[in-house]
Each structure stands twice: as structure tokens, then as C-alpha cells.
Amino acid sequence: MESATSTKPHLVLFPWTGTISHVIPMTDLACLLASHGADVTIVTTPVNAAIAQGRVDRFTAEPAHAAAGITVTAIPFPGADAGLPEGCERLDLIRSPDDVPRFFAANKAHGEAVARHCLRLRLRDAPRRPPSCVISGMCQTWALGVARDLGVPCYVFHGFGAFAMLCIERLYEHRPHEAAASPDECFDVPDLPPPLVCRGLTSRQLPPHFMPPASVGGKALQGMREFDRAADGVVVNTFEELERGSAALLAEATGKKVVAVGSVALCRSPGLDTPQSMSDDARRCMAWLDGKEPRSVVYVSFGSAGRMPPAQLMQLGMALVSCASPVLWIIKGADSLPGDVKEWLRDNTDGDGVASSKCLVVRGWAPQVAILAHPAVGGFMTHCGWGSTLEAVAAGVPMATWPFFAEQFINERLVVDVLGIGVSVGVTKPTENVFTAANAADGGEAEAVAEVVGMEQVKKALEALMDHGPEGEERRKKAQELKLKAKGALEEGGSSYNNLENLIQSFA
Ligand code: UDP
């Protein structure tokens, strides 16, 4: 019979609700923590809880994880009180840029409801122990108050890699962007020891941390920076061997414990990785890949919400249909494309997934981890979101880098210049995003400046990515080496394995 109170540490996770790409890795983190013997509670909004619960169910369906102690708790999101429509619980679900400040207001109120829930959790959650630690997404700044009320440490999970966070610290410290004469003047991130290097950034390419303080993003980020400084440590989805000492340097720069626990996507079998893993789209992707030669396919996807302006999408599309390799292209927001672009897609690509087609377009949710693990995939054109970057690393797939915004331009430098597993498409300006749109709506200047990367430039990057000459082979070799290291990090005795053990032990 189970004793009245478990002896296991009990970790409470608050994923940042704004994007699915935070809910996914934090749920995977919960699975990893549980597989190392912790009890875990994920507290989030109902829409995100459904996604988290689906992933947890697929994890615990694997016999090795049947006993994992993970609870997903949904606390209603007070979006309607802030003027948001029903069910609008993530930034990709908002209707207009005006909803961005409303979303942050609702997030704050949600935090107050979560705090009340967690205090009750302390009083009556038997047979579990009361919470031992809080791990929170970076925008859930209210988590610090919850942790302090519970009398437990508060760790932050940014969803960024250690190198990007280290560069952000160096930028805060040295502020090279302030000396730049224009938003397009290049500067290097100072004080990075070799082999780390981050050259030729521009102010336009910086993460929202460096937006003007009065902008919509800037206002939200001030609180996040204070939260960051006050938190007790940082949990990072990475493995120590990958980012060449960045985690240790970040710990030194921030004076905080930095715990590398990834790649968290490796916690499960690749076939079980998506919210809709049995969807028609998922099946269509996998069946199409099954008919292709090993390492012949370019997989093109720009994250959970990445959308391009129609003119850019056309240039990309023309490059994809004319390149020699078969292409699996995931398009988000396809329904809102202008009629002529839809028509072009219908005429030039195959949306229905005929097995023989050369360019398969999928408009829904793709099973990315399973796709990257498929032997037919030889290259990945990515926006360099950290989740996608790390998933490509864990699968040993080289990348063509097309950063959109946030810290993605820094991730590009890591992939191309530090790790040598990527080819840069050569994008210089960010794509419009929620913050630039919200600032424009707020009467400020939109920061995104239209840049259309031409078809020939895209084609050149694709050819280099799929090239079988010495440079292409060298990238492939390095990517395969990192794949093995990623796997080793989570095996017994590996760096992430040990870090997870030590983290949990510290609450025993
Ligand atoms: N993803 C997926 N299928 C899709 C689009 C995205 O599985 O069709 C997953 C992807 O595997 C990754 C996350 O969504 O885990 C995207 O995270 P990332 O940090 O790369 O980008 P973001 O969505 O934050 O821009």
C-alpha cells in the first residue's frame, strides 16, 4: 500500500502559455523529470492542458513509463475579462495586434488564479509531497511570487538555448548595438571565447529584449528581465556538449545555477511526438517519405506559427519546386493566403499527397520529430526556433537557416559558424511578428522592414544544403556526431541524465 505521503520530490511546471513551442518542451521536460523519479504537476490553461495531456498520455502509454507520476491541471484563462475571444489562450490564436496587450493582461490574471491553486496544492495533494520547486516559462513572471509563497526555489525555462542566452547577457553588459549608426550596421557579440562566435548581427536582428522600452514587447520584457534576475536558476533544453561551454559561461555571467537537461524531445519515441500524431496530415507526410530515397528530401518548416508574406512565399515556392531534391513543405496560415498564391500552390505542388509527387505541401500540423528522424530526410530548411534547431541536431540533419525573429538570428550563428552544420540562406531582416504588428497598432513604428529573399538566393542555399561535395559531407558528418552526443547525453551517466538526477536530488 502507498504510504500517506510520497518521498518523491514534487516539481510544479508552468509552461509559457503564449506559444505551443513552449508547451511542447515543458511537457517533455515533465516526462523526463518523471522518468527520473519525480512527481510532476503541469499547471496551464485548458487549451494548452489538452496538448500537454495528449503528450503525457502518449508517454505513459509506453510500458517503460507507465508508472510516471505526471498530473496536468487546467486553470481557466480569464481571456474574456481582458477582451479576448473564447479559447484564445495562445498568441497564435489572437485575432489582431490589439489583442497582444490583452493577452499579457489575461496572462497576469491567470497567474493569480494559478497562485491560489498552488497554495491549495500545498495543503491537500496527498499522497504527493507539497511542491518542492517551481519551473516556469519566462513570461510567467508571477511564478516567482508563487514559489516564494510556497517557500520553494523558482527556476526559469526560457525555451532558448544556452548560447543565445549567453549572447543576450553579453549584449546587456556591453551594448554594442547602441554604438551602431543604423539598425542594419553589423556588430559582433563581445567577450565570447573560441570556438564560440556571434559575428555580424544587426540591431534589427536582436531578440525582443532589446526593443525600445516603450514598445509593446519592451513593456512586457521589462518584467521578464526582473523575474530572470530574481529567479534561483535556469533549466535549459540543451546538452552540455552541444553549445561548447555556453551553459557554464551563462552560469558565470548570471551567478545562477544553469541546468542543461536536453534534448527533451528525445524523451519519447519519435512516432508519438505531435498533438495530432494520428492526423491525416501526419500519416500523409510519413507515407510520402516512405517512398523516397535515403537522405534525398528537404524538409521545409518554420515552426508552430511562422508565416511569410505572400510575395516571399512565392519566391520560396518557386525555389522549392525548381530544386533537384524532393521537398516536404509545411505551410502555416495557408487559408489566409491570397487567391492567386493558393492557385499557384494548387497548380505547382501536390497538396493531396500522391506518393510520386516531388513537392508535397502540408497545410496543417506536421509530425516534425518523426519527420526529422525519417531516413529519407537529408536537410531541413528552418527558421532556427530553438525547438526545431535542437530537434534537427538530435536527428543528425543539417540545416538551411532562415531566421524569422526573436533569438533565431543568434541560433543561426550557432548552427552555421560554431557547429558547422548549417548553410545560411542570407536573410538580413526579421519577418513581421506579433510584437512588430502590435507596435504598429500601438502607433509606434513597425520594426519589420519588407525584404523579399529572391528565388535564386534560396535555391543556392538549398543546393549547398543537399550538396554531396566535401563541404556538404563535412556538415553531414558533424551533424551525425552531434546526433550521437545528443543521445548519449540522456543515457545513464550522460551529462543531461546526471543533471536531471542532481536537480531532483537537490529537492530530496
Ligand atoms: N512543430 C511540429 N509540427 C509543426 C510545426 C511545429 O511538431 O507543424 C513543433 C516542432 O517540432 C517544435 C515546435 O513545434 O517542437 C516549434 O518550436 P520552435 O522553437 O522551433 O519554433 P516556434 O514555434 O517557437 O517558432
TrEMBL record:
Keyword annotations of the record: Glycosyltransferase, Transferase
Domain of life: Eukaryota
CDD domains per UniProt: GT1_Gtf-like
Matching PROSITE patterns: UDPGT
Transmembrane intervals: none
Gene3D superfamilies per record: Glycogen Phosphorylase B
Official protein name in the record: Glycosyltransferase
